[in-house]
Every structure is written in structure tokens, then in C-alpha cells.
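Homework-ish question, so no full write-ups if that breaks the rules, but can someone show me the predicted structure for this set?
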Amino acid sequence: MKSVGPRVISMGLLLVAGGTGVAQTVRIAGNPILSDGRYYSADPAPVVDGDTLYILAGRDEAPEAVNDFIMKEWQLLSTRDPASRVWRHDPAVVRPNGVFAWAEPDRAYAGQIVKGVDGRFYFYAPVQERNSDAKDRFAIGVAVAESPRGPWKDAHPAGPIISQRVPERNDIQNIDPTVLVDDDGRVFIYWGTFGRLRGMELAADMVSAKGPEQVIEGLTGFFEAPWIMKRKGIYYMLYAGNNAGPDSPCTPALYHACQAYGTATSPLGPWTYRGVVLKPVSSTTSHAGAVAFKGQWYITYHTADAKGGGHFRRSVAIDRLEWDDSVTPAAIRPVLPTVAPRPAPTPSRNVAPAATPAAGPDLLPTRFWLKSLNDGIIRAAPLPPDMWSSWRGKDNPATPWIEYRWPTPVTLNGSRIRFFADQPAGAGEGVAPPASWRLEYWDGGWKPVPGASAYGTSADALQTVDFARVTTRCLRARFVASKGAGVGVQEWEALAPHASGPPAAPKRAAPACDRP
Ligand code: FUB
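A: Not a homework solution, just the prediction itself:
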């Protein structure tokens, strides 16, 4: 794509020259920054140069039904004042094979731009090596430029500075680099994923390893996405954590991540876990960066909140990051994610959002997410936390059920359900459409809903069941599973006779009907 001179296009966007794509000035209403679904943006890494805040981001290009990181280029967002809500978007600023002759074109993963000891900008980029005998070909290359906008050239044309082969042999996936130039000019790089974090000192040239690679420990639940920063003499490491469980401070579901942090008084530790900064976002991955800009700290992260967004169609958000200086070391206050005002929801017959979901038997701990039943989201290619499922691997229950409980009685005359299946109907393994199912309501005992239409079992579309009006506090869907397979449900709606305004989510769990 060639640069063009300034010109105005529809939707209030101003086009200006820049990068290798066409830059646009974007006036936003709030988060995410790019929200209209034309460009997705992930793995934000903020960097300040003079009076401008830049955010480096990868670009998610996965089609809606593809669960994979299709990422071929990095882009830049920049502003002189986040409060102005005016951003410049430079798409396609750099591509892996455009700067690293040794790299594959795909997999422009989470990089970071850092101002080096010499005042130039260094871009730490995880890419895949084209020719390598390593089991995992992810490697970290470094490019250099006079400005965060580039143009970038390989700062180490001999190849990556870190891989499974250099500077030492390792067996981790070498991605998610983050770099600190300390006050005394020493340089430290940290990287890693899948629970394995490494740290190492670099020389002042920003590329040569001073080594050795060190295993970083002490950061509870570390999964990936480290972000190093320093404030008032203390080193802070933000990271995506996935220590999951019903009582975890981080995340209830294994496939989601929180942003947690730890502190240290020297750059390579020891590190002390300090708590959670950001609860799980709407995408399964969470990746953050933070920076001070004109006297205010900001945190950048990504979500699935843009139009058409998803776990592999993520979008960058920014919020203030505040400190609690009343404690030592200063603590990071929990971040309150903000979103742009949304249009008022259209009236709906679905009163499920006002109910508390329940299921029997219990979920496989940390794998599925009961709350997804009534979150209003149906994905083309859902992941486990997008659904409830009775699947346990073996001994899957023959007659599982799900239930809605309202705090006060509701009148219903229909229901819609969207099954999930990764096996065909009749399969005896995995998750298959149920052999049959029925709806019951509580009326002093469980009774079949009267006059029910056919109970469809296909997982390809919402299955609608109409029935005669009932007024109840509890509605149950009982399934007969296919042979030994599990049953999966992405979304389950309970329909009132007439549409009304959006039902409020319950403040407290509604009690069961069938217990005194
Ligand atoms: O964007 C690809 C990967 O997703 C990053 O490397 C991880 O941190 C996660 O955000």
C-alpha cells in the first residue's frame, strides 16, 4: 500500500501520510480505540516520544470462524492527548518479512518499542524464523529506527537475538518480549509464555546478550505477556495470569486471563506477587502495557469489544492507571475498564439475563463457564469458556440439566437454545447434540411445559420451542446425552410473551425452587 497525502473521507476520518499504509485520524467515543471492525488491534505496547503517546499493536485478521492468531503486520496508534479522544492510526507500519530477511511473513506477535541508550528506538519483535531446526521457531528480532513510526531496519541482521538456539539453547516459546532501559543505562529483557518467564541483561547496544538467561519466578499464576516498568526505584512486572478456580482472585475459567503484577527491588528479582490489576477481559487472551505520559499513567490492553470482535479479533483499549502511594511499595489500584457509550438495547422477549443459571452435575472446574449461558453472545467458533458443557472426558453424565432461577416469578411461553457440538449427532465421544431434551418449570414440583412444539437438537442454529404460558420462578432444560458424549450449550434464552426493555442482571444469586 502506498502513502497518500492528506484527504478527508466519510465517517469523520482524516487521512494523512505515514507508515506503509494510509494513516487516518480517528475521533473516538471511548474504548476500544478502533471499534468499527475494519481494523482489529492486539497486544498494545505504549511508548512515549516527546509530546506523543504511541501504541504499537499487532493486527488480528482471523475470519470470524477461525480460532488462530492470523497476524501479518504491526500498526501504530498515537495521540498528543488521550483525553482529546483524537488518535492517529497508522496501519501496516511494519511487517515481519519486511524488516527481518530471516523471518516468515506471518505471526506478527506482541512486540515492544523502547527508546535505547543511544536515543534511537528499538523494536523487539517476536516472529518465526524461516530456517531453523528448533522445535518451536518463534524468535525475537530487533529493528531500529529514528522514530517509533520507522522506517525500521534490522538491528541484528545475523538473525534473532533470542530463540531456542541463541544466545543459549532453551525449550520455551520465545515470544512476548519486554525491555527496560534502567536509570543507570543497563538494559534488561524479559520474555516468555505458557507459564515460563525468562529474564536477561542486554548490552548497551540493545541487541547483544550479556546473559545468562534466568528463570523468573515468584509471579503467581504467570501465563504470558510480561510488561516491565519502573517507578520510584521499584521494578514492576505486569503479566497475564491464569491461576483459575472458583475462588481465584485472577480468573474463574482457565481459558481467560487477568492482569496481575509483582514488584522487585532489583531488575532480575526476586519478585513478589502483589495482586490483580485488571479482571479478565472479553477476549480469552489479556495483554497489557503501561506508561507515564504527561504526568499521568495509562494502561493499554485489548478486548473483544469492537464490532464483530472475538478472541482472535481483538481491539486495543486505554484507561488511566492509578497508584496507591500510601503503601510500600506503591500499589497499582484495580483498573476500571471503560467502554464507549453503546446504543440502548432493543426490547427483547428474552428474560434469561435476569436469571441465575445453575447446572447439574457441576461443571468441569475451570474449563467451561456457566455464565456464558445467558450472556447474549453466540460465537461462530466458540472456545470452552463461551459455553456450558457436561463433558468430563469420561463418564459423561447421561442426563445433565441446566436451569434458570429468577428472584421473582416470570411468565414464559417459549425458549431458544444454541447447542455446541464438536462431534456429529449420535456420537459416543466428545460433545454431540443431545439425543433428546425437554423443558420443565417449577410449580410445586417439576412439570413439563404444556403444549410444547418440537424439540430440535441441531447445533447449527438456535432451536426454538414454543409452549403455552407458564408463570414460574425456575425453568429447567433436561437433556438425554448422545450415548457417552457430553452436551454443550452456548446460549439459552427464556422467552416472555411480549418484548420489554433489557432485563437487569440479578444482584444476588436467586435461590433454587426445589429446595425448602
Ligand atoms: O497476539 C498473540 C499472542 O496473544 C500474544 O503473544 C500473547 O501475549 C497473546 O496476547
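Now go work out the reasoning yourself. Hint: The domain at 7-332 is CATH 2.115.10.20 (Tachylectin-2; Chain A).
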